[in-house]
């Protein structure tokens, strides 16, 4: 991670103050003064501030069952931020690994580990996200095949990646995606002449939403690791 980020993660300093200290020559990496805040450092580097060795706090990983009418944003807007439901220190350090729309409910993963977020959100990670979708009309007979082949979404150059459709009832389906384009589920169903009336994310990879709406919990070590295998 960047040196300024490491300083913030190992002290109570905010980024601006960390950068000032680095520029002032008060930060040493492996015994050498470093004045560039963008330098990449690792946990096993010997990093000190004013002669005191620093150790970064552990990353945090949590899940929440998002209620409708909350925002996947660090600040409140038309609706309250999802973070208003999570009572932890330094919430501004956290971010959402795969946002949901304001009216979508279900599983949201939250962390301060950017590498982990990349493993979850990058299509190259092939991480499965399962959505339960209720539809305005019965699903078209050929929708499953269209989703498997890829859909041309309005304004997008590339087809969507192969997605799996499981029909529960004519108007309720499970859709599994490995990517997360803007409003993707709603746009996919619009492309096959239907309309999403409710959307709930049930799982991401091996992690399922298992707490009541509005509740959150930390992930287990195994759950965190599961996104790297
Ligand atoms: N696709 C959507 O259209 N909305 C979401 O919230 C998530 C996926």
UniProtKB/TrEMBL annotation:
Coiled-coil stretches noted in the UniProt entry, renumbered to this chain: none
A GO cellular-component term linked to this record: cytosol
MF-aspect GO terms: 16S rRNA pseudouridine(516) synthase activity; RNA binding
Alphabetized SMART domains for the sequence: S4
E.C. code: 5.4.99.-
Catalytic reaction list: uridine(516) in 16S rRNA = pseudouridine(516) in 16S rRNA
KW Isomerase (keyword) present: yes
InterPro entries: PsdUridine_s_RsuA/RluB/E/F_cat, PsdUridine_synth_cat_dom_sf, PsdUridine_synth_RsuA/RluA, PsdUridine_synth_RsuA/RluB/E/F, PsdUridine_synth_RsuA/RluB_CS, RsuA_PseudoU_synthase, S4_RNA-bd, S4_RNA-bd_sf
Keywords from the UniProt entry: Isomerase, RNA-binding
Record-annotated RNA-binding S4 domain positions: 1-58
Pfam family, one: PseudoU_synth_2
A Gene Ontology BP annotation from the UniProt entry: enzyme-directed rRNA pseudouridine synthesis
Functional note: Responsible for synthesis of pseudouridine from uracil-516 in 16S ribosomal RNA.
Record-stated family: Belongs to the pseudouridine synthase RsuA family.
Descriptive protein name: Pseudouridine synthase
């Amino acid at each position: 991670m960047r040196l300024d980020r490491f300083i913030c993660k190992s002290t109570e300093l905010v980024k601006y103050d960390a950068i000032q200290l680095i520029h002032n020559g008060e930060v040493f990496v492996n015994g050498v003064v470093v004045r560039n805040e963008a330098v990449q450092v690792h946990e096993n580097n010997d990093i000190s501030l004013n002669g005191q060795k620093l150790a970064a706090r552990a990353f945090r990983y949590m899940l929440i069952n998002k209620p409708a009418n909350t925002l996947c944003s660090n600040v409140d807007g038309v609706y309250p931020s999802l973070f208003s439901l999570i009572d932890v220190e330094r919430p501004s350090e956290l971010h959402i690994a795969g946002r949901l729309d304001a009216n979508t409910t279900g599983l949201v993963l939250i962390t301060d580990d950017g590498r982990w977020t990349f493993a979850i959100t990058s299509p190259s990670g092939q991480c499965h996200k399962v959505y339960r979708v209720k539809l305005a009309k019965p699903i078209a007979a050929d929708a499953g095949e269209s989703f498997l082949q890829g859909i041309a979404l309005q304004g997008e150059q590339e087809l969507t990646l192969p997605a799996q459709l499981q029909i529960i009832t004519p108007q309720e389906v499970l859709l599994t995606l490995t990517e997360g384009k803007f409003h993707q589920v709603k746009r996919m169903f619009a492309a096959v002449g239907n309309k999403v009336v409710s959307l709930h994310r049930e799982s991401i990879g091996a992690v399922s939403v298992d707490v009541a709406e509005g509740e959150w919990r930390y992930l287990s070590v195994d759950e965190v690791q599961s996104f790297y295998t």
